[in-house]
Structure formats: C-alpha cells, structure tokens
Design goal:
Chain lengths: 439, 267
Amino acid sequence: MQNIELTKRAETVNELLARYGVKFGIYKNNEFKEQLFPFDTIPRIIRKDEFAYLERGLKQRVMALNCFIRDIYGEKKIIRDKIVPEEFVYISSGYLAPCDGVLPPRGVYTHIAGIDLVQGRNDEWYVLEDNLRVPSGASYPMIAREICRRSSPVTFETYHVEDNRYYAKLLRRTMDYVNTGGHTVILTPGRYNAAYFEHSYFAEKTGAHLATGSELMVEDDYLYFVDYSGRREKVGAVYRRISDEYLDPMTFNEESVIGIPHIYDVYRKGHVALLNAPGNGVADDKGIYYFVPKMVRYYLGEEPILQNAPTYLPYYEEDMRYVLEHFDDLVLKDVAEAGGYGVVFADRMTARQKADFIALLKREPRRFIAQEVIDFKDIDIVENAKRVPRKADLRAFVLMADEPIVWKSGLTRFSRDPDSFIVNSSQGGGFKDTWVLSQ
Amino acid sequence: MKTLQFHYHMEIAFSEPVHSHIYTLKCLPQTGGTQRVEKCVYQILPGGRVQESTDSFGNRMLYGTAEEEHSLFLVDVTGTAVTDVQDSDMPQNTPDFSVYRYGTPLTRPGRRIRELLGRCRDRTADMSLRDKALVYMEAVHGSIQYGRGVTDINTTAEDALALGSGVCQDYAHILLALCREDSIPSRYVVGMMTGHGESHAWVEVYDGARWYGFDPTNNVPVEDAHIKISHGRDYRDCSINRGVFTGQAAQRQSILVEVTENGGTSA
C-alpha cells in the first residue's frame, strides 16, 4: 500500500467532491457556515477475514441493543434482574417516557446504527460509541468511492475491494421492511442542517421522497406527503433525520416548528414506521454503553465478540476508587454530551482544573464515565505532499431488517491535528474511504 | 364514596380568525384508582374529526385538526364520577412506577429543596411512606403562599420555592421534588375539585401497593372532593390542551370548572 495511483488524484477528487456539494454545516458564533469535508485519498484497508470478525461482532452488538430498547420500553426485565440499574435508564436524556409501551412496526428500533470503533496499536478493535439516534456519514464514503473510481479506475483494477455503492439498496430494504403501506420519505430539517447533503443524496439513491416537515401532514390517523400541486400520497415509512425532541410538537418539544404535529400518534397506532425509532437514545447514552457487553450476555446468551474500551462507572464505588487512583491516565466523558464535546483528558488538565473536576465527579458520579486512553493505531494521511500519521476511527453501519447487515465499508474519520484524539467532523476532522478487501 | 357531577369548560378566544388548528386534549377523567367515571360526554368546537388514543402514562387523549376558520375554540366535558371508592377490583393502572421516582427538569431539586427535605427528615425518621408524604405536603403548604402571576408554566420547583409564591402547579412540583429526592415514586395529577373554579393540580405517591393523593395547595389528603383527569411526571405530561394553528392571532384562554355533589344545587 505504498503508492497507489489514487493518491496522485487527490486534488481532482476533492474538487469533484466540492462540486457535488459534499459539505457539512456548522454553527459558529450563531452563524451557519458550510465547510468542505476534507477527503484524504489513502483508504483505510480492512482485510477480508478481519472484516468478517467485525461483522460478526457488530451484528451481535446491534441485535443486543435492539433487544435492550424493546425491553426498556416494554417489560423492563433487564432492570428487574438488576443487570442495569434503573436510574441509568430513567435519568438518561435519551429515555423518552412517551415511548413506553409503544412497539414499532416489526419490532425494529435500531434500523440504521452507526457504531464507532478504533483499532489499538495491538491491532485489537474497540467499540467507542454506539450511535442509534440519527447516525450520519454513510454518504461520504459512498460518493467518495464513486468519484475515486472515476478519477482513478486503474486503482480498482489493482485492488480487490468490495463495492460499497450497494448501501442505497440496503437502506431501501431496511425502509421497505418496516413500511406499513405507502410512500417512503426522508425527512430533513432543511438545507441548513449539517447533513443536508446526505439527506438529499440518499433520497436520490433510494428513490424516496425528500421532504421537510411542512410537506407532511396527518389526517385521520394517517400520514400524508403533500406535493407542490397539493396532491396527497399516503406515507408508510419515514427515515427521519431530525431528532426525537423536534419530531412532533404535540408529544415532544412544543416549540418545534420542523416537526409534524400528530406524527407520533400515527406511529403509536402502527400506521407509519419511523426510522430510527424514537426513544433509541436510551441505548446510546454514554452511561448505558458500559452495560452493552452485559446486554449481549443477557439477551443473547453469548459472549461479546467486540469489546468496549475499558470503561469505569464512578457510580460504582469500586470504579470511583479506581478512577481517583488512576485519574491522570483516563479520559472522562460527560454522558449528556455528543459530537466530541464534553470529553476531557485528565493529563491535560491543570492542577486547579483537576481539583474542580474531581469535586464535580464526586458530586455527580452518574454524570461521567471514565475510560482508559486507547493508544490508537495511526493511519497515514497526505499533508503538504508528505505522508503523516494521524488518529482515526471507523464508523461502521449496521442496517436492520429481518436481520442485521453490516455494510462492507464505513466512514473513517481522522483528526487533522496530530495531538488530538477527537475525530468528529464538527471539530474540523477529515474523512477517508474504508476499503474492505474482497479476497 | 361520593357521587359528583362535573363540568369542565375551556375556551380559547383568538384576536383574528385562525385555521388548520391542530390540537391534542387530555381532558377526560377515567375510571381507576379510587374513582369511577359513570358518565362522560364531550364536545369540541370546531373539532373536525376527533381521534382517540391513550398516552404512555395511561391518559386518554382526544386529537384532531379544526381545518375551518374560527375565532373561538371550545372544549366542554360533563359527566358523573364516584370518588373515594375503596374497592380492590378497581384498575390501578400502575405496572411501572419506577419512572415516577426520578426528577424531571421541572422537579429537579436544588439547595432549597434539599434544605426543606432536611428539615422534614428530623421528624420523619421512622414514619411510613404515607405519613412522610403528609409531612412533606404540610411543609410545602407552609413554605409558599398562593399567588398568581409570580410563576409561569416553566417555573421549576426549586425556583418556585425560592420565590415563596405560586399556584397549584408549583405546590405540586415542590412536593414531587421532595418525594423524589427521598426516592418515593410520585406523580403529578391534573383534575378538578368540588366547587367553582379552574382546573387543579396535586400529587399522588405510590406506597408499594397503590397510589394516594395529596393536595399541597389545600393541605389535605385526597379523599372524595377531587376528580382526577390525568397524571404524569410533571405538568408537561399533563397539559389539558396542546395546539398549533395557522394565523397571526393573540389567544386568550379561559377555563371554568364546576363540580357539585349529586342532588346539590349548582349556581
């Protein structure tokens, strides 16, 4: 993997990506800015056998997460059996009481899961985060692959890489599986959303309608798409790219103007599928993450194939002791934050900050998790015509219909700052294609 | 046991005509706990076609869209309810009470709630859960004064206690905050009381077998003078009316509640 022809085409590829509108928006100082999402042509390469291992582990993990969500909003056996303490569920910001007792079409909650993994220097993979609300990013490696193939066909003759463009088919299949009868819609907050490119790209590739909330309406307990001429079509599945709180002002945040009034009541009666299911956030809470390996054992009766990064819950006295003793070696995460916010590395704090943080930790132990800092295996990127190593993670996508399917690709994000472990695009990172070798 | 006639009437007057008025109402008392609803009739004008459903807390919902232009929206509910029914066969509607043990943004305790709880604890050490709730209710009643306009629907329990004044919603939120800080499952209740007035709010606590009502505004345990409409974790789960409409209009809501004992005269 020293010199692939593709790397010579880096400029062309990035120009094309920009022309296709591969951007994401961020809010800075209350201003909306669109940024290009920098693409690095050196792919992350995963061997066939290694991916098969990840695939088994990811399927197992997502199955367990789906069982967990169904249980929490249903029988709550895992709480009664004292595997997960109830306060971790009920205090979680992702737990939504209006979802209690509501079973989504075909019992699927985690239609599209984005599982963030990192590979350590010891070559071991660790799951860092499960994203089950509205995980974004699959469109980036999809279109990047498309453009790379066009810019450097010879590269793909030399290397045997699984084609990743079938993601659209997977997504369509996932949406069709739960469709209750009617059209399929991708619901976007609109063009000022960070992931608007992705919303429109998926609509184009899957043949779904792209709609904002104002183009959808509820009448007599069914959902309709209203087109520009006023014609109505019944909707059976909504891949919604707006968060739970804004989905329906009649049930959730009353102030929401991007949602659809009564869409949740239609869903409650089983007349429309919502992907992903509202309330999923209870399972991707950073505090709940600690319990995922336990869920695998509890629901599936299997040993977890994929491991978590070593994680401590200061909520447990024993873990609190460990965290205080090894404070400098740990990274601390506020369970309520996302997108790389609320993450602090203890060894980078001043003495004063440390004392303040420890006081806060003792006062609100439920609010934080502590993790060992994983020594990531770096991946090279090209910067100023030189190859330099950078931290990178992998977001793997698992799509659930009658069974979970792992997309043979993924979004590899890297940090442009050599000293940073934080790869989130909202923090200025870039991305790579992820190649899964087919032989 | 007491048989009560109830009448709930709400009107929203719009300064300009509005249309496409989408509403959800949780305004129907139902049988459960110690209350049996024998008759209940409602009218919604203009209501369009009304759908019915039950929310995750077990409350009945009515919802729909009033498409046509209107300057007045009214909801009228009348019926008969028997209160203080001591019958173990009554549906208790409480399979999962755990959710009511944890605070919500409106009932999260702060320093003042904790101090108030601390003062109560000197007396409640060996008490039963219901007796504790009684002490907390009295403490809430003694800590704030009834007054309108000081708080609003977004005022937290902690802030209301600091202000020292509030309405039934605030009394209920403070009592919920105390109970939950003491790990007692407790829920917010919206309902009606005998006499004339507006809708009312109080608290129910769960003692491991059933729910008991406590009305901190009036400093009385709930017996036969209260008719429950809905319950939830706090005010936000129990809004009697939620709505959005199209039109530039100011709205003014008025509510009239009348509850009389069977055979009694109504004014």
